[in-house]
Design goal:
The complex is a heterodimer of chains A (296) and B (184).
Chain A: H1 2-21, H2 24-29, E1 61-71, E2 85-95, E3 100-107, E4 112-122, E5 134-144, E6 161-172, E7 177-188, H3 189-192, E8 200-211, E9 216-224, E10 238-246, E11 249-256, H4 263-268, E12 282-292
Antiparallel strand pairs in A: 1-2, 1-12, 2-3, 3-4, 4-5, 5-6, 6-7, 7-8, 8-9, 9-10, 10-11, 11-12
Chain B: H1 2-20, E1 24-37, E2 42-55, E3 60-66, E4 71-72, H2 75-85, E5 93-100, E6 109-121, E7 124-137, E8 140-150, E9 169-181
Antiparallel strand pairs in B: 1-2, 1-9, 2-3, 2-4, 3-5, 5-6, 6-7, 7-8, 8-9
The chains are: A mainly beta (296), B alpha+beta (184).
Chain lengths: 296, 184
């Protein structure tokens, strides 16, 4: 009996002692903070490697980008490493709001002008009102001045146009790892001119990044086209690269089989496979610089 | 049996008296601002959502700072701060817990005291002392002051190419205005 009482007493005393021990910091921890903060930096740039990521530029931010691909000629025997030929795209992107980014660019390869509109619709949120993924909608259009390799001759204005619609769905699984799925619809007017070919095509992109250091990540992308064009043999666009960002500069290095920059072209009409042969191995280098036109 | 009842009675009384002395002071809108001054660029970030609580009777203070709530002038800088330097996914909060030395809880007006305690930032805990101005007007406490922190003390890595842009010593200013709270 006496022991029981002692135990009771001990438990009671312990109970009071514990309520003492509930210190101030524990009290603060029980108060929720930062309920409405969406997950930051699923990717660090508006491109994973060759294709668009869910990221948009913040309001008032202007991005200047120079995208380059170098590769070797198959006919000439040259001594240079993957630098006989060069294709480039010079572009601007501007954040109208934190959710809307518009962009325009000039491409050297087909003397093309392209423009796009990107809307950051849904954002992943890991705290408070949780939401599992981010969704961004991309609509792009391109006009190519130079005739393509398939259709030589004079094309009407409307036949030189290409359109791409993408749903970019991404999730940041951990601070280091993000994955994106990109269902894509492409309409290339010139393809519709070929007998038996459709101008419209569906594709699915998958891309990811793995952060290997505070400023460095390894990225990869692949685009699958279930019903490709039959006139020429095409291959899924693939890229393996390293992104390095520091301050206002982002450098993206990659090995890829895609030599074009605008979505409609490289997603559905990459005509060489990914390997190390001349003409197939492309070295890509993107330089991106960000300017804050307004301070908060 | 009588003794047990007496002990229980005293325990009950002590519990009640504790509930009464819960007169701690609290703020949700504390301000913490930090500055990095170099010849290349000046960086400033401000957080207006800092939580803090003080218990004047014991001279204790606790502060909880959400790293994501720091607002920078440049949006990209804010992203880099969270993503590459402070790693707020892994270490979402900085906390401080300390004691106010020789605190005169009944004093009205201004007093300058040292607060010493432990600061945890980027997963690293360091003992620090902060000279703090404490002001009490109409039952409202205001704590304000400055401190300097060394970037290397908290294992925050700055790439060599950016070392001219980010100061080795970060200046931190704080200001908390506490209201009385009865929540325990």
């Amino acid at each position: 009996m006496k022991t029981k009482k002692r135990i009771l007493l001990f438990v009671l005393l312990l109970g009071t002692a514990m309520s003492y021990a509930q210190d101030l910091l524990t009290k603060l921890d029980s108060i929720e903070q930062g309920q409405d903060l969406p997950t930051l930096a699923t990717f660090k740039a508006t491109r994973i490697s060759i294709g668009h990521s869910v990221e948009t530029r913040k309001k008032g931010v202007l991005q200047i980008s120079s995208m380059n691909r170098f590769w070797n000629d198959t006919v000439r025997s040259s001594q240079s490493f993957a630098a006989d030929k060069w294709n480039a795209r010079l572009g601007l992107e501007y954040g109208i709001s934190d959710r809307i980014t518009v962009g325009a660019a000039y491409g050297s390869g087909y003397q093309s002008i392209d423009a796009f509109f990107k809307y950051r619709w849904l954002r992943q949120q890991d705290t408070g009102k949780k939401f599992p993924f981010s969704l961004t909608v991309l609509q792009g259009a391109v006009y190519r001045n130079k005739a393509t390799e398939i259709l030589l001759g004079d094309l009407a204005f409307e036949d030189r146009l290409g359109f791409t619609t993408q749903l970019l769905i991404a999730r940041k699984f951990s601070p280091n790892f993000s994955l994106q799925l990109s269902p894509t619809f492409v309409h290339k007017a010139e393809d519709g001119l070929l007998s038996g070919e459709s101008a419209s095509r569906l594709a699915l992109g998958i891309g990811g990044r793995y952060k290997v250091g505070p400023h460095v990540s390894v990225v990869s992308e692949y685009y699958y086209v279930p019903d490709p064009i039959t006139v020429v043999e095409t291959y899924g666009a693939f890229a393996l690269g390293v992104n390095w960002e520091v301050s206002d500069v982002m450098l993206q290095f990659k090995l890829t089989n895609a030599r074009n920059f605008v979505e409609d072209k490289f997603i559905t009409k990459t005509v060489n496979n990914f390997n190390f042969r001349d003409g197939n191995l492309h070295f890509g280098f993107h330089f991106t610089y960000v300017i804050h036109t307004q301070k908060r | 049996m009588l003794r047990i009842k007496t002990v229980l009675f005293f325990l009950l009384v002590s519990c009640v008296s504790h509930a009464q002395e819960a007169g701690s002071f609290f703020t949700r809108q504390g301000t913490v601002t930090f500055f990095s001054y170099t010849s290349v660029e000046n960086i400033k970030a401000e957080n207006n959502q800092v939580l803090s609580i003080i218990d004047p009777s014991k001279g204790e203070i606790a502060v909880s700072i959400l790293m994501r709530a720091f607002v920078f002038e440049k949006a990209l800088m804010e992203e880099h701060f969270n993503e590459s330097y402070i790693e707020s996914d892994l270490y979402p909060k900085a906390t401080f817990q300390g004691n106010i030395q020789d605190f005169d809880a009944s004093g009205v007006g201004s007093q300058t005291k040292m607060i010493s305690g432990n600061l945890t930032l980027h997963g690293i805990t360091k003992a620090i002392s902060i000279k703090t101005n404490i002001n009490r007007v109409n039952g409202v406490y205001t704590f304000s002051g400055e401190l300097e922190l060394l970037v290397k003390d908290f294992n925050i890595r700055i790439p060599p190419i950016l070392s001219p842009n980010i100061a080795k010593t970060i200046m931190v200013k704080f200001s908390f205005e506490y209201d009385e709270t009865y929540e325990n």
